[in-house]
# Entry
Amino acid sequence: MGSSTEEYSRIPILIPAYRPDNSLLRLIRELDSMKLRQIVVVDDGSGAEFARIFDQISNEYGCKVVHHSVNLGKGRAIKTGFNYILCHYKDAIGCVTTDCNGSFKSEDIRKVVDSLIDDQSKLIMGRRVLEGARDYTGKAVTGYKVLQLSFKYLVGIEIHDPQCVLKGIPISYMKKLMTIWGEGYEFDTKMITSCKKFQVGVREVQLCTEYEKRRNVYKYRTIKDNIPIYLTFVSYIFTSIIATIVDLFLFQMLKGMFNNVRILDDTAMYIPIATGLARTVSAFVNYRLNLRLVFRSKKDSIKTLRKWVLLVIVQAILSATAVTIIHMLLPWSEEVLIKVPVDFVLFFLSYYVAKEKVYG
# Structure
């Protein structure tokens, strides 16, 4: 059962448009027939030759058209639309974003609007029909599976159609999204990944629209525009390298100091002492870097530090245990050759645990 006209008026439809064709006119006409008449279109520097289309939707259907003098990118266009809605729709409970080329059925747009009315605290994500879709073959299937797994394990959000641009955004989340980085298509990805940072839930809505390759004039670049997904993990690798350098430097320095103490030198105790002190300092450095630079967590407490220390200890125990067992089973193998793949696997697991349990 659909929502009322009054409720629909509180959720504007936001359409960033760059050099649109008549598909935009058809979409506006269909939305108008469904009583979805609060529509904000952002002309992202399309040029004078497209003025006719923007004038027509404004004059005939009352769309609010906001212009960029030059093309600034889809992310900037969405933020401009957010700002206009926040300033001019004082009773708005959110907005729904879609594209200008009519790739989504108007019934699906209304379905997302209804879902946002029903749940005003979550990001509403459209979920297109993937299996059986004409374009969902070969590389598209492989790429999507990788993207889904990346969101699940690197971001911590399980989502089936991360490239779907049909979204319902609550008003409170719109305000937060205005402050984040992203001027191009990467902003679509940031709207999802930022849910973890701002503790916003995600709700998927099954659509009737089938998946198809992007054909609109905004050029989507799979690797570049999904950088926000991988940036946190790359940062985690970087901070781990820094911590390793600190660990090795301190170990070398402390080993030289304690090696001159006769009782420690005679018993070779300088090695575990230097190792323990160096690892303690490097682990704390790693903790602080992860806290501020990687996960940007606001949690800065003894409890969080204890969780990190526990993670480091458990990781070390698992590493030592796994290497020992494998070496017992394969006595002819070199310990270091066993340790490298073991620690590689544990590194990925530690990232997931740190993101979800320590800093999350």
